[in-house]
């Protein structure tokens, strides 16, 4: 036998089971992948880099400049970010975004989960209820905003219904009042988002093991105990997805606010996204608008990474 060959043997007296060469090296993974696979991977990556990451990088660069869309950009360092700290409209938009993220995210999850638990069991007509609740998700946010704008008119259905049940609002202008405008938009957004969260939780509930809940019921566990200690822990992966979706949706909310109030009245419903649009595309201050876009991006990344790290550690 040569130095480069070896025989693999089993127990004493057993025949050799194979040969291998000690000098043989396995080919790297990259060499074993067919070229067509690399082509199918690299083409979408190139498109993603060109259409997403390159504009994002340019936006990050613009945030350190003063540029109004004409002529060369003037580098100003951190001046845009310093101006954000003294901008009262930015402070209002930032506070509204925090309120929106907590209320929109929290209430949509609670309502969606409650609807999923109520409609999870098969019964007559349950499919109709599911479809009706999910139906608002089919419409675009701008269409939803225009629809609710009609409902909130002084002589619209909402004031009419409230007056019919004995609540005289005096034909209150919900979207023209700074004290009620943000809450009115939030209700419209929840009406649309709750059905989407319900569908996600319904998919998660279908993956739960029903035998565990049945065994707990036989042992005398209450409905709340079964949900808290058996069902909800099995929804951990779904909760991670829903958290990411709601945080991203709350930070990029634009259409429904713009369709209903355009950030008014008196900037009381201004969000970071609507303020960024006004600064960047109405006032054409692209450097300052890019700084706002960077703030939105950092907030989204901070929320999501923090939650994912915590969820990973718990697992």
Automatic annotation (TrEMBL):
<feature type="domain" description="ABC transmembrane type-1">
    <location>
        <begin position="94"/>
        <end position="309"/>
    </location>
</feature>
<keyword id="KW-1133">Transmembrane helix</keyword>
<keyword id="KW-0813">Transport</keyword>
<dbReference type="Pfam" id="PF00528">
    <property type="entry name" value="BPD_transp_1"/>
</dbReference>
<feature type="transmembrane region" description="Helical">
    <location>
        <begin position="98"/>
        <end position="119"/>
    </location>
</feature>
<keyword id="KW-1003">Cell membrane</keyword>
<keyword id="KW-0472">Membrane</keyword>
<feature type="transmembrane region" description="Helical">
    <location>
        <begin position="131"/>
        <end position="151"/>
    </location>
</feature>
<feature type="transmembrane region" description="Helical">
    <location>
        <begin position="181"/>
        <end position="203"/>
    </location>
</feature>
<feature type="transmembrane region" description="Helical">
    <location>
        <begin position="281"/>
        <end position="309"/>
    </location>
</feature>
<dbReference type="InterPro" id="IPR051393">
    <property type="entry name" value="ABC_transporter_permease"/>
</dbReference>
<feature type="compositionally biased region" description="Low complexity">
    <location>
        <begin position="1"/>
        <end position="11"/>
    </location>
</feature>
<feature type="region of interest" description="Disordered">
    <location>
        <begin position="1"/>
        <end position="26"/>
    </location>
</feature>
<dbReference type="InterPro" id="IPR035906">
    <property type="entry name" value="MetI-like_sf"/>
</dbReference>
<dbReference type="InterPro" id="IPR000515">
    <property type="entry name" value="MetI-like"/>
</dbReference>
<comment type="similarity">
    <text>Belongs to the binding-protein-dependent transport system permease family.</text>
</comment>
<protein>
    <submittedName>
        <fullName>Sugar ABC transporter permease</fullName>
    </submittedName>
</protein>
<keyword id="KW-0812">Transmembrane</keyword>
<feature type="transmembrane region" description="Helical">
    <location>
        <begin position="29"/>
        <end position="54"/>
    </location>
</feature>
């Amino acid at each position: 036998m040569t130095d480069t060959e070896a025989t693999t043997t089993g127990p004493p007296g057993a025949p050799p089971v194979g040969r291998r060469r000690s000098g043989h090296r396995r080919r790297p993974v990259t060499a074993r992948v067919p070229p067509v696979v690399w082509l199918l991977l690299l083409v979408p990556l190139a498109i993603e880099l060109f259409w997403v990451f390159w504009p994002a990088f340019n936006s990050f660069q613009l945030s350190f400049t003063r540029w109004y869309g004409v002529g060369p950009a003037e580098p100003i360092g951190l001046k845009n970010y310093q101006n954000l700290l003294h901008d009262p409209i930015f402070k209002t938009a930032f506070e509204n975004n925090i309120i929106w993220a907590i209320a929109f995210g929290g209430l949509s999850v609670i309502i969606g989960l409650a609807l999923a638990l109520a409609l999870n069991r098969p019964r007559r007509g349950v499919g109709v209820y599911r479809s009706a609740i999910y139906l608002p998700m089919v419409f675009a946010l701008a269409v939803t905003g225009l629809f609710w704008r009609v409902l909130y008119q002084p002589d619209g259905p909402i004031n009419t219904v409230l007056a019919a049940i004995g609540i005289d609002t005096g034909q209150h202008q919900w979207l023209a009042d700074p004290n009620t405008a943000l809450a009115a938009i939030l209700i419209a957004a929840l009406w649309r988002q709750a059905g989407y969260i319900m569908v996600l939780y319904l998919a998660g509930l279908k993956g739960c093991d029903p035998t565990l809940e049945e065994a707990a019921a036989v042992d005398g566990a209450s409905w709340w105990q079964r949900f808290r200690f058996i069902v909800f822990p099995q929804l951990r992966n779904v909760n991670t997805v829903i958290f990411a979706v709601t945080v991203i949706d709350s930070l990029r909310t634009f259409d429904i606010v713009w369709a209903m109030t355009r950030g008014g009245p008196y900037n009381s419903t201004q969000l970071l996204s609507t303020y960024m649009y006004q600064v960047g595309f109405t006032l054409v201050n692209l450097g300052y608008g890019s700084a706002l876009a960077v703030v939105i991006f950092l907030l989204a990344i901070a929320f999501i990474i923090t939650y994912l790290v915590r969820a990973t550690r718990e697992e």
